[in-house]
Amino acid sequence: MLYVLDDGSIKYWDCSTRSRITSTSCLSEGLRPELLQCVPEKNIGALTLISKRRDERLASRVQFFSVEGDVINLHTSIELQGNEEIISMDWSSDGSMLVMGCTGGLIRLYDPAKTTTLTSWSVSDTTPKVAFAPDGRAVLVIDNTSRKIIEWTIDEDVNNGSGKEPILAFVYRLQPDTIASKLFKAKHVRFDASGDQFIVGCEHDAQSLLLIYQVS
User: Fold this and answer.
1) Are 90 and 137 within one domain?
2) Longest Cα pair distance anywhere in the chain, in angstroms?
3) 57 pLDDT tier (thresholds 50, 70, 90)
4) Which of 58, 70, 166, 177 is the most exposed place for a label (fewest CB within 10 A)?
5) Quick one: 50 and 89 in the same domain?
6) For residue range 89-147, what is the model confidence (pLDDT) as tens digits?
7) Extended beta strands in 1-83, E state
8) Distance CA 214, CA 133 (A)
9) Looking at the structure, do residues 141 and 185 belong to the same domain, yes or no?
10) pLDDT by residue (tens digit) across 145-158?
11) Nearest CA among 17, 11, 89 for reference residue 46
């Protein structure tokens, strides 16, 4: 199991022996860890770091790393521009791409091996939540502003870094008819292992809800 502490230390924990195997620090002065997302089958991951103080000009970074045996290796990092901050992120199952939902509604598809953004596009929600399909051929984006979950197809042109935007494949209605409250908000989205369904974690009037969708 991998986890991160407030001091920026990435810890690798062996659940079977209940002992820490190794750790490393990737924290720069003035930054604090925010999101940690890994690909267990590939032993790779990404950690976002942002400014400790909210009243400062926002600095944001994505640090990539891998685990080999009992060693955590730090690799390339992305320095985000201006006040851009990553709200959510998810890996493709083979670890070749990372999708990031950023402030302002920007969605980035990044290739860590090539250290380049393959493509980017925008949605109306300024804090979009994202998820990769298990086969790596689709990305889901939650858009609370328009009350939609949008499915985008990731084709070969996108994978090859042509800069082409993904194809809009399908739009799901986010808010059920039985819930009329304006306080309804989706917080997370994830596919199941088969890719036939996805689950959306929501908040509604201080309660937590799980919505299950069948992929069309």
Assistant:
1) yes
2) 51
3) low
4) 177
5) no
6) 999 999 999 999 998 999 999 999 988 999 999 999 999 999 999 999 999 999 999 88
7) 2-4, 9-14, 19-25, 31-39, 44-51, 60-68, 71-79
8) 13
9) yes
10) 988 999 999 998 88
11) 89
- 41 & 5 share domain: yes
Sequence letter at residue 61: R
How big is the chain by its Cα radius of gyration, in Å? 18
Q: Quick check: helix, strand or coil at residue 181?
A: coil
Domain that holds residue 66: 1-83
The reported pTM is 0.86
Alpha helices in the chain (DSSP H): 156-159
Residues 97, 80: Cα–Cα separation, whole Å: 17
Return the exposure string of 66-97: e unless at least 16 CB atoms fall within 10 Å of the residue's CB, then b: bbeeeebeeeebbebeeebbbbbbbbbbebbb
| Per-residue pLDDT at 100 | 95
CA 11, CA 3: separation in Å to the nearest integer? 5
Sheet holding 138-143, edge to edge: 129-132, 138-143, 148-153, 167-173
Last residue of a domain, one of 33, 67, 83: 83
- In this structure, the answer to whether residues 115 and 143 fall within a common structural domain is yes
